[in-house]
């Protein structure tokens, strides 16, 4: 195993006050977001949008790594520079989403399982040759009346561990993402209990598969009440519940934790990260940062509207959101 390389990549991804940008929306998800923003859902618009992101001036000041998707890893700017090369030139480490999305889990109504292990070893070799140095796999845990089941959590975490082992074999740092969804009317306590179960099972499975925790990054959800819950929680309560759960479940040998935003507004996602740093400054065994998609991209996508004349404004908004998340990582964010 290329242990030193893995540790170096993980350390670089967590450096300073930087964080990750998830720009790995599948074609379906990207089109859905485009439709909501009134942008045509063609391959050329998706390419143009990703060009806007990777050419954002000085983006490497704020972003340590960007997660691409299979479609985008082969794409180039209008001038013919591969996105992956544009990122490297900006000092941003290229990563790649390698799961193939979720499907219904047989015999477990309402629960999802992630696909993508078949042929993964070969895909990872190819992505490494192209320049990707880290990867992402997302598992989805759904809170409902009778869910999640233990079987669903176990199957999803087993897959995450098998994926992580294959990544490390190929010199690629695995981001392991067990996302407990915000959908539903459950309260914060329920989210906390389910997240704790998922994380405990995840680290059990990682150990079984002999994954080296020093060369891995965890991408969890924050602990939040469901979006339809009548009782929303204060920023401080979310920060305390989230860090408390992570301290219980995540071994100190893990170098970094980078949150997904999960549908929170950009402002709230930043405020939560900020509160965690204000409250726990100097007391955490791992680096704590962001790996947001929507919470960084949303204002920029809405401003772009698919029009060339809006590119500069959209890039400014991307930079602004990312630098506000840097401030949050320093505990210095003000909305
Ligand atoms: P959001 O920040 O929009 O939740 O996306 C993060 C991500 O990468 C989901 O897999």
TrEMBL record:
Biological processes per GO annotation: glycolytic process
Record-linked SUPFAM superfamilies: Aldolase
Write the Enzyme Commission number(s) for this entry.
Answer: 4.1.2.13
User: Which keywords accompany this UniProt record?
Assistant: Glycolysis, Lyase
Could you name the domain of life of the organism this protein comes from?
Bacteria
One Pfam assignment: Glycolytic
Q: Name one GO molecular function term.
A: fructose-bisphosphate aldolase activity
Query: According to its UniProt record, which reaction does this protein catalyse?
Result: beta-D-fructose 1,6-bisphosphate = D-glyceraldehyde 3-phosphate + dihydroxyacetone phosphate
Query: EC class of this enzyme?
Result: lyase
Q: In which pathway does it act?
A: Carbohydrate degradation; glycolysis; D-glyceraldehyde 3-phosphate and glycerone phosphate from D-glucose: step 4/4
The record's similarity note reads:
Belongs to the class I fructose-bisphosphate aldolase family.
| Name under which the protein is recorded | Probable fructose-bisphosphate aldolase class 1
- Name its species: Mucilaginibacter xinganensis
């Amino acid at each position: 195993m290329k242990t030193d390389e893995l540790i170096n990549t993980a350390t670089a991804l967590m450096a300073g006050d930087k964080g990750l940008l998830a720009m790995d929306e599948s074609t379906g998800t990207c089109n859905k977001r485009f439709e909501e923003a009134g942008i045509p859902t063609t391959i050329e618009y998706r390419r143009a949008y990703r060009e806007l992101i990777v050419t954002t001036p000085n983006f490497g000041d704020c972003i340590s790594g960007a997660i691409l998707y299979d479609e985008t890893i082969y794409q180039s700017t209008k001038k013919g520079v591969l996105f992956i090369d544009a990122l490297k030139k900006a000092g941003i480490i290229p990563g790649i989403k390698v799961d193939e999305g979720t499907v219904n889990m047989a015999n477990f109504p309402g629960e999802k399982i992630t696909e993508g292990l078949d042929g993964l070893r070969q895909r990872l070799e190819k992505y490494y040759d192209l320049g990707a140095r880290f990867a992402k796999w997302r598992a989805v845990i759904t809170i409902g009346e009778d869910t999640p089941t233990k079987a669903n959590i176990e199957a999803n975490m087993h897959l995450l561990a098998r994926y992580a082992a294959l990544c490390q074999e190929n010199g690629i740092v695995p981001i392991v993402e067990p996302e407990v969804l915000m959908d539903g009317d459950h309260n914060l306590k329920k989210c906390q209990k389910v997240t704790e179960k998922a994380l405990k099972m995840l680290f059990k499975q990682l150990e079984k598969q002999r994954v080296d925790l020093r060369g891995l990054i965890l991408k969890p959800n924050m602990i939040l009440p469901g979006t339809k819950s009548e009782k929303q929680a204060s920023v401080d309560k979310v920060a305390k519940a989230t860090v408390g759960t992570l301290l219980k479940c995540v071994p100190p040998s893990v170098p970094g934790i980078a949150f997904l935003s999960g549908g929170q507004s950009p402002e709230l996602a930043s405020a939560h990260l900020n509160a965690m740093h204000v409250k726990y400054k100097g007391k955490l065994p791992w680096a704590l940062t962001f790996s947001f998609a929507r919470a960084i991209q949303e204002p920029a996508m809405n401003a772009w509207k698919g029009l060339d004349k809006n590119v500069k404004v959209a890039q400014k908004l991307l930079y602004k959101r990312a630098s506000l998340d840097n401030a949050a990582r320093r505990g210095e964010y003000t909305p």
